[in-house]
Amino acid sequence: MSTRNREKRRAKQKARAERNRSWAAGPSNGFDEEPDPRELSWASAELQLTAALQARRGGDESALTRHVAALAAVSGGPAGHEIVNRCLLAWLDRIIELCWRGGWQPADVHRFAGRQAGPRVARLALDAIAAQMRRYAAATVDEQWEAQLQALDATAWWNDDDEWLAARGAREGLERVEVLFDVVELLHLLHGLPAIQMLCPAPGTTRGRTRRGADAANRAEAGGLGGDTGMLDKVRGLLAKAESTTFAEEAEALTAKAQQLMARHSIDEALLAARSTSKAAEPGGRRLGIDNPYEVAKAILLDVIADVNRCRAVWAKSLGFSTVIGYPSDLDAVEVLYTSLLVQATTAMMQAGSRQDRHGRSRTRAFRQSFLTSFATRIGERLKAATEEVGAQAAAEPGHDRLLPVLAARDDSVRQTTTKMFPEVVAKSVTASDSEGRALGRTAADLASLHVRNEMTARR
């Protein structure tokens, strides 16, 4: 049994003992008029929660257990528990708001909580996010927030805030004191978050014109090329089929068509923006998770994909994500392509199996790190060649004589935005140390589904 589990067991025993003593003794406070029990319960919860957080911050497991047990055994019976529930939600509400002000978004908070404390605390973070988001009118919430909340299914699913903690415990199959440990852990994690780059307006502000709205206006002014949402859905569908099929040729054809759609879409967007008199979308940022294991190689894979799609990626290793800077349509392309190629790379790596050195010791980690690093490097070479081919074909079309200057201007704009957002970024080179992993990773990259076939249509 782990130290934390032993501490939780002691906390449950202490909580039961505190309740028994409280019920046996009855009310006796030395005052002629008994204080309002609701005020006592709220004050007690505030004090115990503050003390628990201080103990957690100081690494004092014994004190943490004592204060969580007292929090679970707060006086007032069921009414006291309801007050504690509301007190905890109020604390979470305040700290989630501070996260928004510090540049964090719903997906970031959820990802960080899961990375640091596991899926159970990540689910608790979704509760806190859903409860906090009830404050804001829909017109004051940016579309990036809305999309992330929908993707995470962050909803206030419980019926009454008074019963929230009990409902969460019932969902997880946990006793009250165990849920309280999770709440303290979540508060501890979020309280220590650093400020990061603000990628879109925080909720509660007027969001104004969305980037998709600006893109749509440009399309309408230029004669209309259709919405990019439908195109992206089609690309995702093609890549999903490519990842699930067992036939290599079918996967190659599906992925090739998806990439062709993305490449031409990016070129069309650039030319539309150049011709339009409306305010065009500007470079922005998007954070993508970089998870263990082999996070270095995964960060490299994302970096090379971003680079050939006229984006820049900046990895925050300690926080578990990379921020990709670029124009909206290019960011979409990077995200869907990274997701698909990561699946292909991981599948190929697992099929290669594990490795041992000549003394029988495992070298699987070094082998797989080298495999993925080499895969990423080779994919970058293939993507660059494919992008140059599509660009050359587009530049040769009638009316596309301005293409190269337009793309160069967008590259400069992305570079300037990246420098402004990350003025102190440091570039580091990474080498693949395992020669076999390096060779097999390069071979797997050659077999990845990226080839662009000339006979496939590039138009939407």
TrEMBL record:
Which InterPro entries does the annotation name?
DUF2786 (IPR024498), DUF7168 (IPR055592)
Ranges for domain DUF7168 come to 298-406
Q: Name one Pfam family in it.
A: DUF2786
Q: Where is this region: Disordered?
A: 1-38
Q: Where is the composition biased (Basic residues)?
A: 1-14
> Which top-rank group of organisms is this from?
Bacteria
Task: List residues of the DUF2786 domain.
Answer: 231-269
Name listed for the protein in its UniProt record: DUF2786 domain-containing protein
